[in-house]
Structure formats: C-alpha cells, structure tokens
Amino acid sequence: MTHRVTDRRKFRLIASLSAVAVVAAGTATVALAAKNGEPAPLAAFAPIEKVNKNVVEPKVGKNGAGGVFTVDCGTNEEGKFSADNPVAQPGLKHGAQHVHDFVGNLSISAESTDESLVDSETTCRNGDRSSYFWPVVRINPKANPQDVGSNPDKIKDNGPAEVACPGVAQRLPAIPQRVRDEVVQNLRQLAQQLKEANDRVARAQNPGDPNFVNNTVLGPLRSKRVATLERIANAMSRSARKPNLTSLADCDLRWGHGGGGGHGSHSKPRKFAAEGVLQQAEQNGAEQDAATPTIKCPSVREALPGVPDQALDEVDSNLDQLDKQIAEANQRLVKTKGQGGANFIDNAILGPLKDKRVATLDRIAIAIGRNAEKPQGLDRLAKCGLNEGEEGGEENNGGNNNGGNNNGGNNNGGATTTTAAPAPPLAAPTGKNLELVGNNGKIVRPAQVKIEYRGNAASKVTGMPKFLKMVVGDAKPTSRGPANARATWTCSGFEDRLSDKYVICPNGSKVMRVHDFAGCWDGKNADSANHRDHVRFADKQTGACPQGFKAIPQLRISISYNIARDVQQKGQYQLDAFPEENHNPFSDHNDFANVNSDQTMAKIVKCVNDGRKCS
Question: What residue ranges do the domains of the chain occupy?
C-alpha cells in the first residue's frame, strides 16, 4: 500500500522542521466554528469525511505479485504490555517511555537475543514466532485536547535531556582471551563517546532543535559507534565468530526519566518484587491487566575473564542457554499471570530459573578452567528478579542498572570495566492503568488486529531474512523531524484516506490505525545502524523497489478500536508517546521482528507470488 502526498502535506514537508512538528502535532488552539450546534472540531482531531482521499494502490503488473497472506495473532488477549522496545532500544529496559501492545512472540523483552526468540511460544495461530508491537491507545476524560502535541519551544518542560545508548558489553559473545584488552579499550571508547555527546547536550541552548539533535549529536555519535563496534567485532573474529553488533549503534535523546503521572517527573521507578506484582494483579482484577514484568538477571558476560580459544564455542553455547532460560521464564510470566499465591513467582519461576543458571554457570567455569584459571564465584550471578526489582536487582547486576546505558559498567573485576556512570533507570508502568511519564488513562483494547503480508505490484517477492527488524513511522517527529513519520489514522469504511491527526468517525465506524512497513530489502542486512537503511519503501505510483533493493512480502498491520463517538468528539482518546510528543498523533509507529520459520516464510512467498489469498 502506498500513499499520495497531498498538496497540504507537501507544504509541510518543505517547511522548517520545527514548524512541521508543531503543525503535525496539532498544537494550534484555534478551533473551527461549530455548525448546527455540534462540537467544534479540535486542532489535533479531524472528521474523517474532511480528509482527502490519499491512498494509492498501484496496479499489479504482469510481473507483479498480488497475493495476500493473513496471520491471526489475536489482540493481545494475554495482556503482554511493556515499555520495552526490543527493536529500536535493545537492552534499554522501559526504553520506550510509553506502553506497547505485543502480539506474537511471548518471551520478547528489551534484553532478548535472536536465538532466545526461536523457541518461544506465540499468540499467532499459524505458529509464527515473530513479534509485532505498537503504542497503546488510552481514553483519558481529563485530557485537554487543545494541548495535544508537543511544542518544540517548550520541549524542555519535559525535564533534562540525556543521550541513551544500547549496552554492548552484556550483549557480546565470550571475549577471546588474547583480544580482551583490545575489546575493553574499545568499550571504554564507547563510554567516552557517550559522555562527550551528553556534555554537548548539556551545553546546548536549544537541545530540542531537530537539526541539533540529528546533525550535531545523534548522527555523529552513531558514526563513531559504528566504527568502534566494527573494531570490536573484527578483534573478536580473530579467535571466534564475528558478532553482528549493528543493532547496538543507534542512540536516542530522552527527556524525563520519571514515573507515571506527568511530565518532568523524576521519581525513583517503581520496583517489582514478586509478591508486589501478584498483589497488584489481584487488586486490578478483570478491570485492567497488570503490567507484564520481565526477568532481570545479573550480567554473566560482563563478569567473565578473557576466554581461551579452546573454550569459546562451549562458553558461547552456555551463554546462549542462559539467554534462553531467561526467555522461557519471561514467557511463563505472561502465561501464568494471576496464578497462585504471593509466593508463586518465587517458587514456580525464579527458583527453578536460579537452579538452571547455577548448573549452566558451573559448566562455563569448568570449560574455562580446562585451559586457564577457573573463574570463582560465578554462582553469585544465578539469582534473578523482576524488572529492576529488589530480587537480584541493582546490587547484583554488575553496576549496570539501566539495561546498558553505560555500555557495560562492571564492579566485579570482570572483563569489561568502563568509565561511564550508569544513567538513571527509566520508570516502569505503574497502577491499574499502567500509567507512565504522562501517559494516563485506561488502555483501549483493540477490537481487531489484522496482520497481512502483501505482494508487490512490479515484481515477485523474495523471502524476508530471519530476524529482520523493521520500524515504520517515527516515535519522535518533534525532536528528530518528520522525515520518517507517516499518517496512520483512519476509520473503517474510509481506508482510502489516512490522516496525521486523530480521526472522528461516523456512527458505526471504528477508529483505525494502518501501518504499512517498507516492502523492499537490500538483500544483505537484517538490521542497520538506524534500523531503517536496510529497507526501503516502494515507489508510490508503480510499486517498484529502488535500485539495489528487492521486493519482500510487504507487512501491513491494521488495528481497529471501538471508541464511543462522544469520546472522539471531545478529544479524549490519545496515543501513548514519548514525553516530548505529548500524545502527538503523528508520532504513531509500529515495530516488527521476523521470527517466521523458513518453511512459513516460503509459504508466504508462494502465496503472494501466486496471487492468492491465504492464511
């Protein structure tokens, strides 16, 4: 599916970035005059009848592929809600600063590895273990619709800005003994680069300006990190397999680190002990799902010394096993939510996990000890807890209590001690409505989620590579500019038009969000430093992919909601968003990690290329 850019949108795209962000966010306070006694339209809301038809479906040519493969993954009936973004913010717990709906893979979290996702259970009826997730929609009767969308001039109101980066040390394979010093030196270089970027932000007069954010801070930092990560990978490849660290290159500018209840709040994030999570679930009852906790374990990779070449394969295999054990425990937290008494999580999940980790850590120590000094005391890393909870929490996690923003801080004498201090941890969703950083109100559960893999009008498609990561839309058009943002809002029966504002639908019509992912792939990379460069959108008119890219099944996710019309007219439904976006409808986005089996992807490709409709 492609979209025609209207004259109005063209004007926005050539305007200054700040001005565009303001317009797209709907910050104007002047409403149109009411007619016939009806409520006046709101600045950030648009009656769907007033939106021009702007969706173009290119005609499928003789060499094209017109089929559609539909996957039923449910509507998040399991209640897997999380502020993690495993695609765009890997390793950063609660890094999204807003809550996502997850369908598909049940074990995924910010700390997941590709290998840990493969054995997960899934909500998808065809066994697809991919992960699909997007920001939740809330109804907030106290919302001020005229204040929706952040004003770049007031972006500082959200609190101090800080650059946050994915952790690296705790996501590396076993570090070969003979390159340990070189790897540690480069990890320290990553920490220094992050410090310099934050110093630059602290000195800036207007740290929210998109040109400053992209061109002075994040762009140069990404380039430096790409080079440093490549040096790490090359060093390790001399003795072991070369790790792919591409997904860890991109950093982000975050505003405000506090808990739910408002912008600029810097209160200490809520800690989840096992008993507290269960009590919260019991209090909530059926009214609203409790936040889905995830497992937090001390970092083993950071605690290991350099590993002899003879032991690398065995140690890596056991490190992968530790990741899978955590993934299995995360999955059990979703599937057993609300079961048992106050000690259920401790006895049924955390206890067995600790026993498995003790055995695996012992195997790692023995493997290293055959050819070098056997590391002592690894069993201290066996105990895990929930989120940043007190069980296995900050005192045991190797000095890294925010999922890796310090690039592997370590106070246990291991391999990866660096000089950067850990950043304040981000808050977890709290309360019966999972409120977080100004995202308030009751979550609206989707009435329907439709996941489609579609063809290409100009050519046959080739299969997606396993573990392909993709993002559509931009969660931060205010601070990063609108180049990657996309209009997603429409109403059922009006899918021939998409709006960058919230929509007001006629009676009997559902509010909808339609996310069309890129349908062209570079043929080589499953991810890229900014999570975008490895894929492209097809030509809007012809459907053809750019030169050097090949067509893949184009993913479309359509989400429908039953929202009362008076709630729409009053502007009381809102998208969860980063603090600086203040529920900006133009910040809508969707993320995807492909964990389809090779067999399922082959079925998708054949269906699409044969021009059939399959499921």
Answer: 2-32+39-155+439-614
What's the CA gap between 516 and 522, in Å, rounded?
18
Alpha carbon distance 391, 411 (integer Å): 19
**400: pLDDT strictly greater than 80:** no
Report the pLDDT averaged over residues 558-570: 97
One-letter amino acid identity for 399? G
Instruction: Decide the pairing of beta strands 550-551 and 385-386.
Output: unpaired
pLDDT tens-digit map of 30-67: 333 344 445 545 789 999 999 999 999 999 999 999 99
Tokens of 476: 């931060």
What's this model's pTM, rounded to 2 decimal places?
0.85
**Distance between CA atoms of 260 and 434, rounded to whole angstroms?**
8
Going from the C-alpha of 554 to that of each of 60, 80, 528, 537, 591, the distances in angstroms are: 14, 25, 18, 9, 14
Helices (H) and strands (E) in the chain, counts: 13, 25
Structure tokens at 562: 């039953």
Rg of the Cα atoms in the chain: 24
Cα(376)–Cα(170) distance, integer angstroms: 19
- Cβ neighbours, 10 Å, residue 434: 28
Q: How far apart are CA 585 and CA 589, in angstroms?
A: 10
pLDDT tens for 370-384 read 999 999 999 999 999
User: Residue 337 has which token pair?
Assistant: 């939510």
Residue 304 in contact with residue 412, Cβ under 8 Å? no
